[in-house]
Structure to design on (208 residues):
């Protein structure tokens, strides 16, 4: 029997995560949790069970995937969840290529969607999203709650801190470090280190 799974967030990313869950075939999607939608709203055939309180109605721990892209919102939400009530499975789309699986560590609740390629000696902490067609080179570290959007290229020996947002199509050059809770704009080319809690955009990326 398939394990049941709840998806937190029934917006655009939630729908994409649902399609990933269906592609994996390993879990039965039991429902969405969404604090902004009315209970019993149906999204792509799956019911919204309610808000965060729904987790209290389960007598045994339940699988939960967080479909929220914003790193700060993700980190706040996870801190509000009683860890004894949930499991955070790792979800990896079947099309993802991890060239050297033994040297790639992936923390709980992290999600890698279709078409991504990861090479070797990579450390991904917990609740990280690596979205469609992103490449991750050798000796890269990605901190907890970071979200790397679609079509990003992360070169070798890059260190991305906790809670970093990397916008779609960004390129991160070799040996760059990006500080905690920084944001990299869509399409940026990051050539130098980025301080914590800083937003950079453009080519080459500059602070805004
Ligand atoms: C960089 C980003 C996080 C900034 O968001 P923000 O803090 O709300 O900043 P603002 O939208 O107020 O923009 C600040 C300035 O940067 C500029 N800017 C924003 N994003 C930019 C980008 N990607 N490239 C170039 N300039 C950009 C704005 O035009 C604005 O300039 P101005 O002050 O001269 O008017 C956001 O624009 C972004 O690129 N997010 C990534 C989105 C993404 O990848 N989505 C994909 C989902 S799959």
């Amino acid at each position: 029997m398939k394990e049941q799974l709840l998806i937190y967030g029934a917006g655009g990313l939630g729908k994409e995560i649902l399609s990933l869950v269906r592609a994996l075939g390993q879990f039965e999607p039991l429902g969405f949790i969404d604090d902004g939608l009315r209970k019993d709203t149906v999204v792509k055939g799956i019911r919204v069970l309610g808000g965060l309180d729904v987790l209290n109605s389960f007598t045994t721990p339940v699988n939960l995937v967080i479909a929220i892209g914003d790193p700060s919102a993700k980190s706040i939400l996870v801190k509000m969840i009683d860890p004894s009530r949930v499991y955070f499975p790792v979800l990896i789309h079947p099309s993802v290529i991890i060239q050297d699986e033994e040297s790639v560590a992936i923390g709980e609740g992290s999600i890698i969607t279709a078409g991504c390629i990861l090479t070797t000696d990579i450390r991904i902490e917990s609740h990280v999203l690596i979205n469609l067609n992103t490449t991750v080179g050798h000796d890269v570290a990605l901190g907890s709650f970071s979200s790397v959007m679609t079509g990003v290229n992360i070169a070798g020996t890059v260190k991305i801190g906790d809670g970093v947002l990397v916008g779609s199509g960004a390129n991160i050059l070799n040996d760059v470090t990006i500080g905690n809770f920084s944001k990299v704009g869509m399409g940026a080319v990051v050539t130098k280190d980025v301080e914590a809690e800083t937003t950079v955009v453009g080519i080459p990326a500059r602070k805004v």
